[in-house]
Amino acid sequence: MKSVDLELPIVKGTTNENLLIGAATMRPDQKMGEGNYPLAGHHLKQKNLLFGPLENIKTGAQIVITDFKKDYIYSVTSKDIISEMDTDVIEETNKKEITLITCDKAVKTEGRLVVKGELVDSFGHTN
């Protein structure tokens, strides 16, 4: 995400190890470019690490992810704070969208920052 200077690997599953190195997939059945693609990441006190920069993302910003076969471009449609209990944001949908989730603060909190984006384009991977 160039607009907030964020580039992370996407890793499979929300283990502690994975959350310390990148953006972690939240469902075993999720596929890039299909339905809802939820990713979780830590929000640390050092604001430029992991998902910390998401607090500065704006509606309309681009999110680009890749499986190294295709690149998928999403446009941010919303940014909200929800309760950690609101797990429906990771459920599958018919819309081609991405959902990025992190704590709303860099300390223990019950709030979650949720950034949603809709798929606007996909094409063969480029370096």
Walkthrough of the structure:
With 127 residues, this protein is mainly beta. The protein has a single domain (2-124), classed as Sortase, Chain: A (Beta Barrel), CATH 2.40.260.10. It has 1 helix and 7 strands; from the N terminus they run βαββββββ. It has one helix at residues 16-19, and strands at residues 10-11, 23-25, 36-40, 62-66, 70-83, 97-103, 111-124. It has a 7-stranded mixed sheet, with no helix packed on it. A hairpin with a 7-residue loop joins strand 6 (97-103) and strand 7. The protein is globular, with a radius of gyration of 13 Å. This is Class A sortase.
List keywords for this structure.
127 residues; mainly beta; Sortase, Chain: A; seven-stranded mixed beta sheet; 1 helix; 7 strands; globular; Sortase_dom-sf; protease; cysteine-type peptidase activity; Sortase_A
Shape assignment: globular
CATH topology: Sortase, Chain: A
Q: Helical content, roughly?
A: under 10%
- Unreliably modeled segments: none
Order of helices and strands: EHEEEEEE
Order of adjacent strands in the largest pleated sheet = 1-2-3-6-7-5-4
Helix/strand/pairing category:
mainly beta
Q: What distance separates the N and C termini?
A: 15 Å
What is the mean predicted local confidence, pLDDT? 87
> In the CATH hierarchy, what is the class?
Mainly Beta
- Tell how many strands the DSSP assignment holds: 7
User: Beta-strand level of the residues, as a percent range?
Assistant: 35-45%
Number of domains: 1
- Biggest β-sheet description: 7 strands, mixed
Rounded to an integer, what's the Rg over CA atoms? 13 Å
Q: Identify the CATH homologous superfamily.
A: Sortase
Helix tally equals: 1
- Which CATH architecture would you pick? Beta Barrel
Active site: 42, 103
Protein name: Class A sortase
GO molecular function: cysteine-type peptidase activity
Keywords: Hydrolase, Protease, Thiol protease
